[in-house]
Amino acid sequence: MEEQGFFYRDTWAEVDLDRIKNNVKEITGHLSEEVEFIAVVKANAYGHGDLQVAEAAMEAGASMLAVAFMDEALALRKKGITAPILVLGASRPGDVNIAAEEGIILTVFQKEWLEKAQDALQKDATLLLHIKVDTGMGRIGIRSVEELKAVEGLIEEDPRLDFHGIYTHYATADELDDTYFNRQLSLFREMLSGLNHQPSVVHSSNSAAALMHPDARFNAVRIGIVMYGLAPSMEIAPELPVELQEAFTLHSRIVHVKKLEKGEKVSYGATYEAPEEIWVGTLPIGYADGWIRRLQGQEVLVDGKRSPIIGRICMDQCMVRLPYEVPVGTIATLIGCQEQESISINEIANKLETINYEVPCIISSRVPRLYRQNGKVVDLNNSLL
Ligand SMILES: Cc1ncc(COP(=O)(O)O)c(C=O)c1O
Fold this sequence. Notes:
Elements: E1 11-16, H1 17-28, E2 36-40, H2 42-46, H3 50-60, E3 64-67, H4 70-78, E4 85-87, H5 96-102, E5 104-108, H6 111-120, E6 127-132, H7 145-157, E7 161-167, H8 179-193, E8 201-205, H9 207-212, E9 220-223, E10 248-253, E11 256-260, E12 265-266, E13 272-273, E14 278-283, E15 299-302, E16 305-310, E17 318-322, E18 331-338, E19 341-343, H10 345-351, H11 358-362, E20 369-373, E21 376-378
Parallel strand pairs: 1-20, 2-3, 2-9, 3-4, 4-5, 5-6, 6-7, 7-8, 8-9
Antiparallel strand pairs: 1-10, 10-18, 11-14, 12-13, 14-17, 15-16, 15-18, 16-17, 18-19, 20-21
Helix pairs in contact: 1-3
The chain binds pyridoxal-5'-phosphate.
Residues 40, 88, 169, 206-208, 222-225, 232 line the site of pyridoxal-5'-phosphate (PLP).
């Protein structure tokens, strides 16, 4: 593990782009050639780094990107990404001209939205659109064939609008029981059959659906979580037909080592009391980094040994009980491997009683990301230098 010199603190995340590329190739191997791989890089690529993941995914075979908001798409354009980018969420109709200028694809999710967007769109603009159909997720999307036909009509009549794609999103693709999934899929098919013309890109599947339901792939899939090497749910994890490699690890260096006598206390509230003579290390990571207070008691790896976080986690620091005295500067791995031991994102998610998706997302932007490429840690953060 080698750190680079663009930051001045002893905590960092490491994102393995080789693993992301391997995951993309592994997943692509299960799709037929005509199915496009849309890499979902919203939320800073699930906390992994939008530009770096987008480039890795495109290199490994993705042909399109998806984000949640226009700001995320614009950020990628600013960083030089020229690939097609679809905004999955609701954009403001008044912002359509910026999307048109930047060649960003927006989602039409209601007739009223489209009408307002048409009012705002400049005369000579071209706006690429995907229609979102709500087949049972209950979030955003067109809910009836009548509304879909009306929207398609408005798009067809307006030379500024390009009906590029149509899609839906499943609520239960990560569950083994496929009853609700199948209901959504047949509703989507029904909606598609109500169209005058099918657009060039038709997609419905997220990671779980793409891997578990080949019949729902149409001609594109939107892949997020499995590209990062994580299973969409524990329920389907054993059934996934792919070998995934987790890409995100988190590390810190012990900045202070001390011996506490029996009865001495640690951290706010003085709630932890040394049960005997112990060695304690201080890590420069806290809840402002996303290592939230609920992680008290969680173990980290020091010298290949599990070492629990003791006392309350502070905003910028936390303390661990060391297996024995170690030198200042020793690496503590909070997510990742050391020798034979490993702490997975799933372990942290279990501790937090949440899903693995949330874990890399909550590691805040204060934690610098390093990138591993071709087996080496590389500096892909030139803008920060
Ligand atoms: C509309 C939409 N499509 C695709 C995805 C990617 O899902 P996953 O990460 O499960 O592949 C998401 C993620 O939440 C989404 O909201």
